[in-house]
Amino acid sequence: MSFVAINVLTVPPDMRETLERRFAARAGEIDRTDGFEAFELLRPVTGQDSYLVYTRWDSRDSFESWMASDAFTKGHAQAGAHGPAATGASVWTFEVAERKERV
Ligand code: HEM
């Protein structure tokens, strides 16, 4: 069963551009990680101050292995080197109960 982990980032208006620039230059390490299925950076449009970083995996184990890996550290090098663009972060996790994707 697929597993979804969403990082909820609180981003002040003056840091949005910085955050999006960092993601545009992201390492791409996750793309090559075992069990990785999908990633999306979701920009808020109706007044919220939270961006969602959506990730989907083939299992919870794959997500937890990535979190503990060098790939995760490399994937956060910019945030580590220059300080976070976000003022807060929390992780929501889900099992995919049902899915339909039109291809
Ligand atoms: C304090 C917690 C976190 C903050 C402030 C944060 C912020 C960021 C930022 C600014 C980037 C842009 C790339 C860079 O910094 O080099 C990034 C990359 C990324 N983050 Fe996070 N992040 C956090 C934790 C997490 C967690 C728990 C997840 C999983 C749900 C996640 C998912 C991702 C993904 C998928 C990328 C792209 C990595 C790649 O391309 O290899 N982040 N994050």
Structural description of this entry:
Helices cover 28% and strands 30% of the residues. The protein is of the alpha+beta class and 103 residues long. It has one domain (3-95): 2-Layer Sandwich (Alpha-Beta Plaits), CATH 3.30.70.100. It has a four-stranded antiparallel beta sheet. Bound molecules: protoporphyrin IX containing FE. Protoporphyrin IX containing FE (HEM) binds at residues 5, 7, 9, 19, 22-23, 26-30, 39, 53, 55, 75-79, 84-86, 89, 91. Protoporphyrin IX containing FE (HEM) binds next to strand 1, helix 1, strand 3, helix 4 and strand 4.
Helix count? 4
Strand portion: 25-35%
Contiguous uncertain segments of 5+ residues: none
Count every beta strand, where a strand is a DSSP E run of 2 or more residues.
Answer: 4
Any idea of the CATH class?
Alpha Beta
Give the helix/strand class.
Answer: alpha+beta
CATH fold-level topology = Alpha-Beta Plaits
How many separate structural domains? 1
Name some characteristics of this structure.
single chain, 103 residues, alpha+beta, Alpha-Beta Plaits, four-stranded antiparallel β-sheet, globular, binds protoporphyrin IX containing FE
List the helices and strands and how they pair.
Blueprint: E1 3-10, H1 16-24, E2 36-42, E3 50-57, H2 60-67, H3 70-75, H4 77-82, E4 88-95
Antiparallel strand pairs: 1-3, 1-4, 2-3
Summarize the structure.
By secondary structure, this protein is α+β, with helices and mostly antiparallel strands.
